[in-house]
Amino acid sequence: MDLDVFVSAHRAEWDRLDVLLRRRRRLTGGEADELVALYQRTATHLSLIQSSAPDPQLTGRLSQLVARARGAVAGTRRASWRDVTRFLLESFPAAVYRARHWWVPTAIASTVVAALLGWWIAAHPEVQATIAAPDELRRLTRPGGEYETYYSSHPATAFAAQVWTNNAQATAMCLVLGVFLGLPVLWILFENMLNLGVGIGLMSSAGRLDTFLGLVLPHGLLELTAVFVAAGTGLRLGWTLIDPGPRARRTALAEEGRAAVGMAIGLALVLFVSGAIEGFVTPSDLPTWARIGIGVVAEAAFLTYVYALGGRAARAGDTGDLTAAERSADVPTAA
C-alpha cells in the first residue's frame, strides 16, 4: 500500500467525519446516515493501515476518530444491576465452566504434587532438618504451636481481610501473568503447593496430620479451588498465544484476556467467602467435623454454581467475554 496515496484519497472523508462529530446541534437524518457510513469506512481504513502500512501517528488519529464515532453511533451505556446479575449468574460461571478442561487437571496435578512433597518431607528427617532447627520444628508442630495459633493470632475481621487481599493478589497474578506463556503461573502454583506440602509433611511427622487438615480444609477447599481456576485460566491464556485456533491471534488473546479479567473479579468474590471462613470458622470452637463440613458445603455450592449455571450459560453461547454490543466492532483486515 502507498500510504501517501491512500491518505490523499481518504483524508476528506476523515475530515468530514471529524466535522460531524464536533457538531453541537442535533444532526439531521441525512447527516446521521452520513456519520454512520463514514464511521464504517473509517474503521475499515484503520484496519487496512494497521495490517499493511502501520503508521503510529495516523493510526492514533484514526483510532481516536473511530472511537468517538462509535460512541456517537452506539451511544453511551451505563452499567446497571442487570449487568451485575448477568455477570454473577451467567458470564462468570460460564467462563469458569469453559476453562474446566484446564483448571480441573491443574487441581489434580497440584494436589498430587503437594501430597508427594508432604510424604517426602515426613519420611525424611534430613529434609526436615533443612527446613528448620529441631526446636523450631517443635514450636511449629506441638499442640498450641504456631501452626494452630496462626489462625487466631489476629482479630478475625482483620485476619479475614488480610487473607482475602493476599489470595486475591495471587489469583490476579496467575490470570495476568498467563500471557507470558504460563511460565510464571507454574511457579506461583508450585510455591503454593510447596507451602502446603511442608505443612503436611511436618505435621504428619509429628503425628498431628489430622489437626493440620482440620485447620486447612474448612477454608482451603474453596481457596485452593479459586487458585486452581486462576492458574488453569492463566495457562490457557498462555496457550492461546501459541495456538489461537481458527481466530486471529490478536482477536483470540483479546477475547480470552477480557474473560480472564472478568474471572479475576468473580474469583475475588469467591475468595472473600473463603477468607471469611478462614477468619471466623477455622479458629472457632466448633468441632472439627463441623468446621470441615462448612468447608465442604461451600466447595460443593461453588462447584454446583459453576456446573449448573455456568454449564447452562456456556451451552447458550456465553463465553464470559463482553457482549457483542459492548465490544468494539470487528472490521475487515487485509490479507
Report on the structure:
Helix 1 packs antiparallel against helix 2, helix 9 crosses helix 10 and helix 11 packs parallel to helix 13 (288-315). The chain contains 13 helices and no strands. By secondary structure, it is mainly α. Helices cover 79% and strands 0% of the residues.
Low-confidence stretches: 329-335
Q: What's the Cα radius of gyration?
A: 27 Å
**What is the count of helical runs?**
13
Strand-residue fraction?
under 5%
Largest sheet: none
Name the structural class: mainly alpha
For the residues shown, what is the average pLDDT?
85
Order of secondary-structure elements:
HHHHHHHHHHHHH
Distance between the termini: 12 Å
Q: What general form does the structure show?
A: elongated
Could you estimate the helical fraction of the residues in percent? over 70%
**How many strands appear in the DSSP assignment?**
0
Summarize, please.
The protein is built from 13 helices and no strands.
Main attributes of the structure:
single chain, 335 residues, mainly alpha, 13 helices, elongated
Secondary-structure topology with pairs:
Elements: H1 3-22, H2 29-52, H3 56-74, H4 81-98, H5 100-123, H6 125-131, H7 134-141, H8 146-149, H9 156-177, H10 183-205, H11 209-242, H12 249-281, H13 288-315
Helix pairs in contact: 1-2, 1-3, 2-3, 4-12, 4-13, 5-10, 5-11, 9-10, 9-11, 9-12, 10-11, 11-12, 11-13, 12-13
